[in-house]
Write a structure and sequence with these properties.
The complex is a heterodimer. By secondary structure, chain A is an alpha+beta fold. Chain A is built from 23 helices and seven strands. In chain B, the strands form two sheets. Chain B has a four-stranded mixed sheet, with no helix packed on it. The chains are: A alpha+beta, B alpha/beta.
């Protein structure tokens, strides 16, 4: 596991082979006849053993990753319900084997199969929807999402024929099928959590105008089985939603939007996009400029926004804490609440959900003084998201969000080493470059555009967008006392300034290029090369050392700690007492350091989290 | 663990420490792994149950049966509209052609594990406006006196549904019957008859026959025996 995340696999492998009794039967390379083949074989065995022992070290995270990979495999190869029993038998066999051979790493295979089945059953459940085109459906359920952005293809399609509202419901149809359906051309606009019963006709789609996405891809990735249009008087409200975080968030949103209407139109359009992720007011020309310069990701709420909200929350609450002498955890819990408030107002798209989960994990770890690692939080977030919506795994928004976050979490550190450190913008630049590099193939795959100028422009825009996001949050908070207009004026000016700069950059020659859709193999090779480059630099770099020291101080169960323990026991007659004291001193020193630094910002990287994201 | 005195003790101690650590490491990993697998399997089971609950019957695409929005929907000449509900897979309103038999309809409906189809009249010819309800064999409170079969036609009168011919005049009205009249019912003695009268006084009479089940001492068995012979 660790080889996948950070550090040096080879340095670790030597230790793990010699340390772990279960792997000691592997013949060291030196004992085999020194031919090239045997050396390669021993290297492979060494690597596999090191990976297995790494997997055992971080078994929980390895399992989550296996679950995700299993889901992806199911999406590619397909799943049949008959497989379920076969999988169950294989899983039981693997569990038995792993118990007998004392190899917990084998359990990871079981979780991978469960991930496979999890994704597969969700797909089958979606396909199992019985309604055929132009047939009547009787559906009863709860409204889970209201689609307001008019750049949604299905909204456009429904609007061609008649005006109406579009929303998504989860419930049960008259055949006993349970799942999600999209309702278009609804004459009434429900609120989230309303319970409705719908009589409608299944809509038939013959073609899609989004030339790069497969027909109905949007529906499939969002686990929506079909689109239905209610018959006249076909909607009955069974129960109205009460006061919930959704209803409060909706009223805040509406208030801010109504205050925004006093601004000039261009500022309104840009502000709605930057602060709320709504791009429906942007003109065609504006969207094109933003896409070609590769900064469209600012116009989809993501980790960047959540990072700025965290920054603001931490700064303000720390000041409050110092002034009133509040306990330490209040700062982190307060910031987490602020992040949740913002997320509720802008709505939970995959990227917002990802960023919120990661932010809350980071803040909670800080609040209870646990060690926190961005990489592990990233796996947690992906696991939780795919547990809820397994089919998101092939959604462009989800992929872009996680690719960018992975780039920032793993890559920023070593990219930062490559550029002059005195340069004030080196860190945001490094974060931006790695995020762009990670998302570029995905952008080329889904949107066929590769922006070159974006590498340069993105860090600049990302920093300026901080003002807009913080002003927007202030507007949301001030909307309770009807003062939202004040911060909105400032935000509007900044957005217009950003757009003017973007237009200048877009006019440069060779600002962007169109790309052919890369094949799956090309994508695989690209990411393998990225991984290898990361490994090479990380190994040669100080990072590996830092990381190892990190593990030494925090994970006593690590084989290298066992090694250190042995040496210390041998060196000292006092044995365990000496060791206890040693670790106690270390921990105390670390705590002292932390207190002196006045609590560092937990995840500096995410403040400059320029995730490339395109709205669908 | 005793304090190391000699080089051999030291050696043994080291191995002991390594062995215990390895053991603890394995146990903790196995526990974590099994818990994760257990929880995921549980979730998967729930997903599977939801899937099975809505599995469409194989014969959904049976020619001659089309889903419609309601009884008044436009249909082609000669077709009729019926409604299917109860313990079946394909509930809803359907337009069917006249050559569809009861057997076809039942095949199309897609019975479930607990559908009670023990006494269905296959010779019945569906009529326009018929509403068919398939009972569940697990319905303990299913007290409606259906026909000899469990698929019931709404157009048929209630009298046709009861298997035996009972003259309505012979029925005992439990709201007006005396103690001795009630005791004529099978399984009702002095005590139970008195309990019925007490219940009647306390609750201002019976609105439905099913309310008898609320009377102390009257269970499903007795209720089934007397249901055909009483009225309200």
């Amino acid at each position: 596991m660790r080889t996948l995340f950070s550090g040096s696999p080879f340095r670790k492998s030597e230790n793990s082979v010699t340390d772990s009794p279960a792997t000691s039967n592997i013949t060291p390379a030196s004992n085999i006849t020194p031919t090239i083949t045997s050396n390669i074989i021993s290297l492979v065995i060494l690597t596999i053993t090191s990976i297995i022992s790494d997997l055992e070290e971080y078994i929980l995270y390895a399992m989550m990753l296996a679950f995700i990979i299993g889901g992806a495999i199911a999406g590619v190869v397909g799943f049949d319900i008959e497989m379920l029993w076969l999988l169950a038998i294989i899983c039981l066999a693997i569990i038995a084997v792993s118990l007998f051979t004392r190899r917990p790493a084998l359990l990871i295979l079981v979780v991978m199969m469960l991930g496979f089945a999890w994704h597969g059953i969700t797909t089958l459940q979606q396909e199992n929807f019985g309604g055929k085109a132009d047939e009547a459906v009787f559906f009863e359920g709860r409204v889970v999402e209201i689609i307001e952005s008019t750049d949604n293809y299905f909204v456009q399609l429904a609007e061609q024929e008649s005006e109406g509202y579009t929303f998504v419901m989860r419930g049960t149809d008259s055949n006993g099928w349970h799942g999600k359906l999209m309702i278009v051309s609804s004459p009434v606009k429900p609120r989230i959590n309303d319970r409705l019963s719908i009589t409608g006709i299944v809509y038939e789609f013959t073609e899609t105008y989004n030339f790069n996405l497969l027909p109905n891809n949007y529906l499939r990735n969002n686990n929506i089985a079909a689109v239905i249009r209610p018959v006249p008087d076909g909607i009955t409200f069974l129960r109205l939603a009460g006061v919930s975080p959704y209803s409060i968030a909706e009223s805040v949103r509406n208030k801010v939007f109504s205050d925004m209407s006093a601004l000039p139109e261009i500022q309104q359009a840009l502000l709605k996009g930057m602060a709320f992720g709504e791009t429906n007011m942007l003109s065609g020309r504006q969207s094109t400029v933003l896409q070609q310069t590769g900064i469209m990701h600012i116009f989809a709420v993501s980790g960047l926004h959540i990072g700025y909200i965290m920054l603001l929350g931490l700064t303000v609450l720390r000041f409050v804490r110092r002034t009133f002498g509040l306990p330490r955890w209040t700062v982190y819990c307060g910031t987490a609440l602020l992040v949740l408030f913002f997320s509720f107002v802008v709505g939970f798209s995959p990227s917002v959900l990802r960023a919120t989960i990661m932010a809350v994990i980071a803040l909670m770890c800080q609040a209870i003084s646990w060690e926190h690692r961005g990489s592990l939080a990233l796996v947690w977030a992906a696991f939780v998201l795919l547990l809820i919506e397994p089919l998101w795994i092939f959604q462009p928004g989800f992929l872009l969000s996680f690719a960018a976050a992975a780039g920032i979490v793993f890559g920023t550190k070593f990219f930062h080493q490559l550029i002059p450190q005195r340069f004030a913008l080196s860190r945001p630049l490094a974060a931006s470059v790695t995020a762009q590099m990670m998302t570029m193939p995905i952008l080329a795959y889904f949107f066929s555009t590769v922006s070159i100028i974006g590498l340069l422009l993105s860090p600049l825009v990302v920093m300026m967008s901080g003002f807009v996001i913080i002003f927007a949050l202030l507007a949301m908070l001030l909307s309770f006392v009807n003062l939202a207009y004040i911060p909105l004026v400032g935000a509007g000016l900044v957005t217009e300034f950003i757009y003017n700069i973007t237009e200048l950059f877009a006019a440069l020659p060779n600002a962007f290029t169109y790309a052919v859709r890369p094949s799956a193999l090309a994508l695989l090779i690209y990411y393998c090369l990225m991984y290898l480059a990361y490994k090479c630099i990380a190994q040669a770099d100080q990072i590996a050392f830092d990381d190892e020291m990190d593990i030494l101080f925090h994970h006593k169960s690590d084989p290298r700690v066992a090694e250190a323990v042995k040496k210390l026991i041998a060196a000292s007659q006092n044995g365990d007492e000496f060791l206890e004291g040693y670790f106690r001193d270390l921990r105390q020193a670390k705590l002292n350091d932390e207190n002196r630094d006045g609590e560092e910002v937990p995840e500096n990287d995410r403040e400059q989290d320029p995730e490339s994201e395109h709205p669908e | 663990m005793k304090k190391p005195q000699t080089a051999k003790d030291l050696w043994d101690n080291e191995h002991e420490v390594a062995r215990i650590k390895r053991r603890r490491f394995l146990i903790s990993r196995f526990i974590a792994g099994i818990i994760v697998i257990f929880l995921l399997s549980f979730g998967l089971g729930a997903k599977y149950a939801v899937y099975v609950g809505g599995v469409t019957a194989d014969n959904t695409n049976m020619p001659g049966i089309t889903a419609v929005s309601d009884m008044s929907a436009d249909i082609s000449d000669g077709n009729i509209i019926i409604s299917l509900s109860g313990t079946i897979t394909n509930k809803g309103y359907y337009s069917i052609s006249p050559d569809i038999t009861m057997r076809d309809l039942l095949d199309f409906a897609g019975t479930k594990r607990d559908s009670d189809v023990s006494a269905i009249d296959f010779a019945h010819i569906p009529q326009h406006g018929d509403m068919y309800y398939v009972a569940s064999s697990e319905d303990i409170l299913d007290v409606t006196p259906w026909l000899q079969n469990d698929i019931k036609s709404a157009n048929d009168s209630a009298d046709d549904l009861t298997g035996e011919d009972i003259d309505p005049a012979d029925l005992i009205n439990i709201n007006t019957a005396t103690l001795s009249e009630l005791m004529e019912l099978p399984g009702i003695g002095n005590v139970k008859a008195q309990a019925i009268i007490d219940y009647r006084i306390e609750h201002n009479g019976f609105s439905y026959k099913e309310e008898l089940l609320g009377v102390k001492g009257i269970g499903d068995k007795i209720y089934e025996n007397i249901i055909q012979r009483i009225t309200v």
